[in-house]
Amino acid sequence: MLGLFIVSIVFQIVFSAYSIVEGNAKILKTPKIVGGYGINIVDAPYQVWIALRSRHETYYGDGRFCGGSVISQRAILSAAHCFYNVALNFPGENVSSLIVIVAGSASVREPDKYTKEYRVQEVIIHPAFNNISDNDIALAFLMGFIPWNWPQIKAVPLAERPPSVGEICLTSGWGYVNEMGTPFVLRQASVPILSIERCRLAYPEMPTSQLCAGYSGAGSRPCYGDSGGPLICSNQLSGIVSYGKSCEAPKIPVVYTNVSYYIDWIRQVNSSFDYSLYSYTDASTGLINCNFEIICLTTLLILLE
After folding, report:
1. Which is it for the CA torsion 137, 143, 148, 151, positive or negative?
2. Most buried by CB count within 10 Å: which residue of 41, 128, 151, 173?
3. Is-catalytic flag, 81?
4. Model's pTM, two decimal places?
5. How distant is the alpha carbon of residue 194 from its chain centre?
6. One of 78, 133, 227, 242 is an active-site residue; which one?
7. CA end-to-end span of the chain, whole Å?
């Protein structure tokens, strides 16, 4: 067993990081971008963050624990362990009412005019995921539609084949708050794809449903908080941040769920979801509403093109 999944540690939330010792390094389920460079949301408009509703609705940005990627007007692709998480008391069931997804902004400290917040109607975790390393993939369906003309939010195409060994890809997420109190900012890092043989030197049990990326020396990498976030290769979503060894082990690569391996499952789940119905809370009345069938049935879904 490769270890516990990346449990996100975020500003103003005190959660203990899960870890176990394998060899001389700890495996943590908590990557956040280390190094890299700051970017604007227009550089990664598919990037979203996921937060605990109870905390986020009390203080904006509090409760952030995972990332994800926009793949359709209602579907967010992320890691299964984000929603099946003992440390957060997430049982993998009925988690949708506990979370909120935020898109369209590089800031996790305050919204701007382009920020969109969505409650979640349903989370579908891969049926073969059982809190181990394989099949670490899930879809979260929003209570609402992302408008396709929104300048700061765009869906990312899904990769139908894995990236080539040596290909330089991009991974993104929110970084640390430094000693001077600088807020979390969206950061991006470039990482090379490694061969399965190289990956298995660090993770002997790594299956072909995963891929790994990183530098043999010191370099930028996900660490502490970016679980579920994207790995973009050739402008397509090729990977989902899954797990890695500690940030103090920069020579050891990070493992990603291989999106191309699950492309049929993603499309099947998306096509079986009823886009014609959704519920939302009317802020003026507090009532739950649904049946926006005309809007829903005319939506364009990039996954079904």
Report:
1. negative
2. 173
3. yes
4. 0.79
5. 21
6. 227
7. 38
